[in-house]
Amino acid sequence: MQIGLIGLGKMGLNLALNMLDHGHEVIGYARTRSTVDKAAARGVKGAYSLEELVGQLGLPRLIWLMIPAGKTVDEVIEQLLPLLAPGDIIVDGGNSHYRDTLRRYQFLKEKGIRFADSGTSGGMEGARYGACCMVGAGDELFAYLEPLFKDITVPGGYLHTGPPGSGHYVKMVHNGIEYGMMQAIGEGMEVLAKGPFKLDLKAVAGVWRHGSVIRGWLMDLMESALSKDATLENIKDIAYSSGEGLWTVEEALRLKVPAPVITTALLMRYRSEQEESFATKVIAALRHEFGGHDVARK
Amino acid sequence: MQIGLIGLGKMGLNLALNMLDHGHEVIGYARTRSTVDKAAARGVKGAYSLEELVGQLGLPRLIWLMIPAGKTVDEVIEQLLPLLAPGDIIVDGGNSHYRDTLRRYQFLKEKGIRFADSGTSGGMEGARYGACCMVGAGDELFAYLEPLFKDITVPGGYLHTGPPGSGHYVKMVHNGIEYGMMQAIGEGMEVLAKGPFKLDLKAVAGVWRHGSVIRGWLMDLMESALSKDATLENIKDIAYSSGEGLWTVEEALRLKVPAPVITTALLMRYRSEQEESFATKVIAALRHEFGGHDVARK
Amino acid sequence: MQIGLIGLGKMGLNLALNMLDHGHEVIGYARTRSTVDKAAARGVKGAYSLEELVGQLGLPRLIWLMIPAGKTVDEVIEQLLPLLAPGDIIVDGGNSHYRDTLRRYQFLKEKGIRFADSGTSGGMEGARYGACCMVGAGDELFAYLEPLFKDITVPGGYLHTGPPGSGHYVKMVHNGIEYGMMQAIGEGMEVLAKGPFKLDLKAVAGVWRHGSVIRGWLMDLMESALSKDATLENIKDIAYSSGEGLWTVEEALRLKVPAPVITTALLMRYRSEQEESFATKVIAALRHEFGGHDVARK
Amino acid sequence: MQIGLIGLGKMGLNLALNMLDHGHEVIGYARTRSTVDKAAARGVKGAYSLEELVGQLGLPRLIWLMIPAGKTVDEVIEQLLPLLAPGDIIVDGGNSHYRDTLRRYQFLKEKGIRFADSGTSGGMEGARYGACCMVGAGDELFAYLEPLFKDITVPGGYLHTGPPGSGHYVKMVHNGIEYGMMQAIGEGMEVLAKGPFKLDLKAVAGVWRHGSVIRGWLMDLMESALSKDATLENIKDIAYSSGEGLWTVEEALRLKVPAPVITTALLMRYRSEQEESFATKVIAALRHEFGGHDVARK
């Protein structure tokens, strides 16, 4: 197929190369000229404006967005609209909030533009060599796009989750689970590191990859990370978060689903970003008040 | 009554003054000579050795321990034993683990020494002007000691909780609840501090003291702390813990009582003591592995 | 003062009686005729329509809303607007979301109507005999209303928290803290109830009311509840929630304030509302898969 | 090798068959005669007493325990001791607490019996076709046993974690991580199940197995469980726990490692076992006290 790919960052470029590997034609656009140049050097047909991108695509045009969630997506869609014709297709392959996706779907439907959402998992490696795609789309559109999804994913690695929005919904929850799993691994690793035995953490992660109950890709990555830095001494203890963990927590709250582990995992990330915890200062101050407990003063 | 008080620290000295206020005679001992001197200057009869302390007490001797929980209590009991006579009484007014108290009670019973435990709450101010005492003791011993407990507590502020050990048990749980409450206050204060309104935190704590659902002594202390340091800028964000919070969590685990709030409050204190969170480093490293996410490097 | 009180439910009626006690004139309206009759029998001047209510008020009219948060407030305001004149005052004394309050303030400002928000704490007893009011309002309006707030609150029990919205904000956080405190008390009580000692829970709550660190109104209520039902055998283990706990959690998430205790308290309430936990079923099913562990089947 | 296997339950029998597949000779003993018969029918040499078991083993005897953790292990060791000779080997392949293992190692060392611990992961399927073994042992003993571990594990699936006790320690933490991961998956699945889209949960678990970040054996099992019961309607929402989750939490507390996710996962299991939550009743009662909130009565 012929794909107009907007966004050639870490994920976008890898996905483009993946598409090229499977015989697709990729016309790529990014805001920064040098980013386009870099992609062009790898086989992507470079476009230096949206007009140029759209101009190179046959009807119905297939445009794949691989850009940051939020306003950027709306802005790009606004800029694309005058350039597109009814029947053209936009796939949002990024991590948009599912409610934005629902809204955009309705908006574009009224303009005659078909819209699908693909939650794309598997990291950069997945984007490059075989991702996992959770696709929300109408049946007809999904059928049309299915060959492409089949090509860019690992075997068994794509699913038509349901109507528009459902792909991003499933991806959101996937990431929520990921937050909980990662925090669990982190906590376990810390117990290992501080426990009574002098353990080779990399070797432990390694053996857990093979035959254990908790084997999986995160454990593969754990071994990989520890093979580069056996004690993680070069990593700062700050865990940032993008939106999906928060959105999963918000969705759980909305549904009154008690999700304490995913929520706690998110809150511990927020805690890690704090230079100073005011809540803790309150506790220290209270302890000092009632017990005359020593309080660490600055 | 005549009380031999061992331990003249923050809590012990205040308790001694409290007892003196109510017409009791207090012979006080502490390991450090100057501590005894200081107490002596306030009306306590100083004793510079356990022998001296015991020697000044009429039969049955009443000895009150106000010393750190753990080994110290066992050591002092060991040193006291040869000096005591059957029928003498030891009251452990400190924060001992209730299982240690049960053990000591059995041990002393075999020696003919009567033993009671008093969980003492109310901080230094309570020790000085009226505490809250949770007393574990046999009925007869409690009846004997009751006038003393009546004197050193606020009206309604003492309870015969049950047999030996029960006083410390109830005090342990009291402190567990305290951990949860303090963390809740801390979190709320932080939301106030970072929220969209420029609030006078001291004034808020002040109004909450009067008529609100969450009014109570912790809120009184909150206003007091903020009146000294309106933004807590001089307090470091480290909240230490003594044993009872942990013990409550351990007891809850033993009983399979889900106590997530008390537990989380404890864990957040531990988190505050960490210079570096290894768990967080693991998460940061994993994020970097799969997503090429920026990781803060040292 | 002359107050037009809309909403004569549990809180509203008590507040009306409180106002009457202090010499204010209360014209009261409620949707249900019999509710108005009941209030009228206690000294409130009954109004059976908003028109009737507004008609009895002198200029500038002072209207106090004591109605459920959400749409109802907007509806009542919409119905009131044609009846009011510039300079009239609406006080929202309910538990509205602070962002709704900000929106309503702007909306009413454009119409020339003055608007204040009062977060009202202290339960029914507080409403009746002395509440705690957190008031968001412009300075001038607050000065005008202050005598009323002084009358209906306990000494020290009202605060001008800041501009409109701030009263509801502070009240929201107050309730969030309350959630955490209540869960902490619940957990502690359960550890007491299941522990090795046969304790009189009512007596324990009673002694904790006097001189302990965790003394406060919630402990007063704890003793009161246990005095009616010593083992709470007649209470079902479901803890509902109104909005403020959730809003505090949402606000904390928005501000990236880690509030794990308040959040967990909320989630445990949600858990208590569940007839069945799907998350737990997943775990049971997984355990069965890997370990052949017995799984409770229906 | 020749292995005397004590315990022929779910894990033990599968492990025996695994050993047989690799050409080892297995003499198997279990307390129940029929259990031995069943194993004998599959190729195990049945022993109907420990004497019979030991009698069939050449020197140095290699005895593998696959029995429930706790007292049973001590009892069996006590019964074995008079039958063994210096240099004989006991491997504890069960889920013993690492501190019991340390104690047993010292005890047996004094008797001249060599002792190793193998944390064995991978469930029944792993035991049968290739497990993951974390082995604590002295270097010499490990070298001696290594060929056996190589045979019964998947490639890469065994590790000499360090000295005795370390195998069970690493396995304990493995299970702690497992608790956190499973709760995260459970929460995510519940958000999917209750969300706005009608999703095929089995299909979602299926796609997540292929290429996603959270792929791994637990997700394989998730799909398998859902393929048997698409909505888990036949599973009761009770998640039991054996010891390792609790031990990981206790160890984390001992080390002051904040492990809120693993801890919360454990507490949610405990919550699921409760017929009634006393903590929740306390909250419901308190709400009723202050707000006159409706309380669900029995």
From TrEMBL, chains A, B, C, D:
<dbReference type="Pfam" id="PF00393">
    <property type="entry name" value="6PGD"/>
</dbReference>
<dbReference type="InterPro" id="IPR006115">
    <property type="entry name" value="6PGDH_NADP-bd"/>
</dbReference>
<protein>
    <submittedName>
        <fullName>6-phosphogluconate dehydrogenase, NAD(+)-dependent, decarboxylating</fullName>
        <ecNumber>1.1.1.343</ecNumber>
    </submittedName>
</protein>
<dbReference type="GO" id="GO:0019521">
    <property type="term" value="P:D-gluconate metabolic process"/>
</dbReference>
<dbReference type="InterPro" id="IPR006183">
    <property type="entry name" value="Pgluconate_DH"/>
</dbReference>
<dbReference type="InterPro" id="IPR013328">
    <property type="entry name" value="6PGD_dom2"/>
</dbReference>
<dbReference type="Pfam" id="PF03446">
    <property type="entry name" value="NAD_binding_2"/>
</dbReference>
<dbReference type="GO" id="GO:0050661">
    <property type="term" value="F:NADP binding"/>
</dbReference>
<dbReference type="InterPro" id="IPR006114">
    <property type="entry name" value="6PGDH_C"/>
</dbReference>
<comment type="similarity">
    <text>Belongs to the 6-phosphogluconate dehydrogenase family.</text>
</comment>
<feature type="domain" description="6-phosphogluconate dehydrogenase C-terminal">
    <location>
        <begin position="167"/>
        <end position="296"/>
    </location>
</feature>
<dbReference type="GO" id="GO:0006098">
    <property type="term" value="P:pentose-phosphate shunt"/>
</dbReference>
<dbReference type="InterPro" id="IPR004849">
    <property type="entry name" value="6DGDH_YqeC"/>
</dbReference>
<dbReference type="GO" id="GO:0004616">
    <property type="term" value="F:phosphogluconate dehydrogenase (decarboxylating) activity"/>
</dbReference>
<dbReference type="InterPro" id="IPR036291">
    <property type="entry name" value="NAD(P)-bd_dom_sf"/>
</dbReference>
<keyword id="KW-0311">Gluconate utilization</keyword>
<keyword id="KW-0560">Oxidoreductase</keyword>
<dbReference type="InterPro" id="IPR008927">
    <property type="entry name" value="6-PGluconate_DH-like_C_sf"/>
</dbReference>
